[in-house]
Sequence to fold (517 residues):
Amino acid sequence: MDADDETAGALGRTWLSDRPWEVLTRLTELDHRLAGHPGDREAASVVADAFAAAGLRDVHEEPFELRRWTPGEVELAVTVPDRDVTRSFEAVALPYCPPYDATAPLVDVGHGTPEELAAADVGGALAITSTESPPELGRLYHRVEKVGQAAAAGAEGFVFVNHVPGQLPPTGALRFGDEASIPGVGVSLEAGEWLREYADEGARVRLRVDARTEDGRSRNVVGHLGPDTDDEVLVVAHHDSHHIAEGALDNGCGVATIVGMAAMLADLERDLERRVRFASVSGEEIGLLGSEALAGSVEVDAVHAIVNVDGAGRHRDLRALAHTSGALSDVVEEIAAAVDHPIKISDRPHPYSDHWPFLRAGTPSLQLHSEEPTGEGRWERGWGHTQADTRDKADPRTIREHAMLAGLLVRAVASADLPRVDPAEVREQLTEMGAREGMLAADIWPDGWDRGCRTPDWNASTVDGGYRTEVVGLRMADTLPEGRYEGRSTAGTASHLPQRYLRPHERDEHRGRSRRV
Fold:
């Protein structure tokens, strides 16, 4: 790359900076960063200080309301009736698990696909399923899809078995944004092996979960750089984590990456052709709640592109998910070639991170993830979502390098001509990938997508062809000015919002070349 002196200097300072690692350290020193809890609030303060030190302007917090989930004790005990065997296993309650205390049979349903559930008699039983996606599916089969399918099949509860060894019970929300209809707990691979064996023997399980879900509040942290333009590039990373771990890889490394990127772009601010808004959001782990609030506080149709840093900084090689935007893929290819660095690109969409509220509204959306050169770490959780997600797994060199690459990408995105994404194309690709049924079961398939991809405005009532949808919108902690969106037509949809926001009746590969996969 033939970099001018200003760019070379900014890249060099980014490589030498300790600030990203210091931010990761401070985040992982907190008790936990589950959205709505004290550690989440402290994390927002850490990020606000880091944003200001990096040179962002107008750094401030934007509060929003949510349903706060608080876990308590969990007991899981197995009894094998034909043999005098009673055993207890370590289990963790999954976020938005309701309180529960009952005894039920165990049924092994493999990966929890609709076909496996149909073949098993799960009515009134606890369904045991793996965290792993079926290899033949060719995509991530997300946990909330599995829970939704299990509940629809009549399961009494959900036991989520880690596919990664190491006595590591996994976690992850059962539902987006509010209490789930059935309880769910995570157990280790090793415990799962025993449970599957006992299920074949007709074992029964006594499961007790103490938990509560109540109204709460969290906050996003926002600042910006660049000129005062009509449209802007939005850079996001989520600072919340789960209650059982430090959340270093997911997503402390992502926050550290955008802090490094912010300082780099502050040095290169006069090169930016559009305003760049940085947002560290909360509530991603329990339903993309912070990004939903963010989408309700900005002009979504004025977001030129969103760059979602969720997964970058963890593993050696950067991976870019362009979500059907060929123009974004081209930008990534150009930067990869210019710096002689491998970046793998996928054009396929997915709805399970903070770009989703914007992607479904037609915003070009780039997610920066990462993987090992062997290809491992692509989608499997690994250490993430377990108590092993700790700072020792991170590498400051990877964070610095990804901050540099991400900074170059954002600068290029800010000057690129990017057509809007067609939500119908996103819908069709998700349908072709087999994601529609699972998203419907999980209640995250946008309303209107089965009506010719008609999507309601953020804050409007629409009546057309006998189809009426009313959306209340996000008036979280009065951060959204009253009337701001009244009568404004966008491609946005609030269908993915937690139900409490709706009215009751609506409930290549190497040497600098990228490779599309």
Observations:
- Residues 453-517 have pLDDT under 50 and may be disordered.
- The first helix runs from residue 5 to 16.
